């Protein structure tokens, strides 16, 4: 009985919490630490989004629990949106706009969605394999392995239309309004051109989870394997421009808060550079053996 009373008491404390200030936000915005008071005494409240239920009935009804979604972008078979669960229409609109009531003008620029959704439709068996749970292996790739196995694999994937969405961006057919920086045509030919745009996995607002993508214009660069010593100047130029464009677009971020890296093997075979905030918690995509720092590539070539 005593433990039940303690549990009830603890549950009753939370609604009485009065916020004073935010101490920290991490895990790409999924966990936040708040300082406040309960009954005039100091209190610290850590709030973390819980994992999704794996109950099949709950998951089957998940799309219909989204009372409202707001599209962030569409490219080829890919689209990404923000969604709000279960509120009434008026409340959903306020939350998507980051407002708690019509008279509150604070934080109007902050999106307050429950989830970010990436839809692939129609999807292919390759998409299904990519997003299915897989066992990881660390492989040391020899030049012969690259020539005999990896390069033919890359070529097959490129011929299957895997890069249509990349070419749509480079050709200005999609995501034109999202491009942060593009090399002026007068500055260079297509052999050194590139553009910078938000990665589709970023929600577009949580700066500590910032994830941008730089795509090179030339189409003969499949991966870091194609980079040679003669490309050092080009890579250094890209590094300078990408850092400058990012901090100009997001002034609260400093250059030393950004990491630039290239994946190998990449998910798609067109040379691209990832720009992420240093506070973005490193998952599998930033693991050793997957992410290669741009600075390391430059120094290795040098």
Automatic annotation (TrEMBL):
The active site is at 272 (nucleophile). GO terms for cellular component: nucleus; P-body. It comes from the Eukaryota. GO terms for molecular function: hydrolase activity; RNA 7-methylguanosine cap binding. SUPFAM superfamilies: HIT-like, mRNA decapping enzyme DcpS N-terminal domain. GO terms for biological process: deadenylation-dependent decapping of nuclear-transcribed mRNA. Belongs to the HIT family. This is HIT domain-containing protein. It comes from Ophiocordyceps australis.
């Amino acid at each position: 009985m005593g433990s039940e009373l303690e549990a009830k008491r603890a549950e009753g404390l939370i609604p009485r919490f009065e916020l004073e200030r935010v101490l920290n936000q991490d895990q790409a915005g999924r966990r936040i630490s708040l300082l406040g008071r309960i009954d005039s005494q100091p209190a610290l409240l850590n709030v973390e989004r819980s994992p999704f239920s794996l109950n099949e009935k709950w998951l089957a009804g998940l799309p219909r629990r989204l009372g409202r979604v707001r599209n962030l972008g569409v490219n080829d078979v890919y689209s990404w949106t923000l969604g709000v669960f279960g509120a009434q229409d008026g409340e959903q609109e306020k939350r998507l706009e980051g407002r708690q009531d019509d008279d509150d003008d604070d934080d109007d620029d902050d999106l307050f969605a429950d989830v970010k959704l990436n839809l692939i439709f129609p999807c292919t068996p390759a998409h299904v394999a990519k997003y299915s749970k897989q066992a990881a292996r660390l492989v040391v790739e020899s030049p012969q392995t690259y020539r005999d196995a990896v390069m033919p694999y890359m070529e097959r994937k490129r011929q299957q239309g895997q890069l249509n969405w990349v070419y749509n961006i480079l050709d200005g057919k999609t995501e034109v309004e999202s491009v942060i920086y593009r090399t002026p045509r007068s500055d260079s030919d297509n052999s050194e051109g590139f553009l910078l745009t938000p990665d589709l996995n970023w929600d577009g607002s949580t700066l500590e989870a910032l994830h941008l993508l730089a795509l090179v214009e030339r189409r003969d660069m499949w991966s870091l394997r194609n980079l040679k010593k003669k490309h050092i100047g080009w890579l250094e130029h890209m590094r300078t421009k990408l850092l400058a464009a990012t901090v100009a677009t997001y002034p609260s971020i400093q250059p030393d808060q950004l990491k630039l890296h290239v994946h190998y093997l990449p998910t798609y075979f067109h040379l691209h550079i990832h720009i992420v905030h240093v506070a973005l918690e490193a998952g599998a995509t930033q693991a050793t053996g997957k992410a290669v720092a741009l600075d390391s590539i430059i120094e290795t070539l040098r």
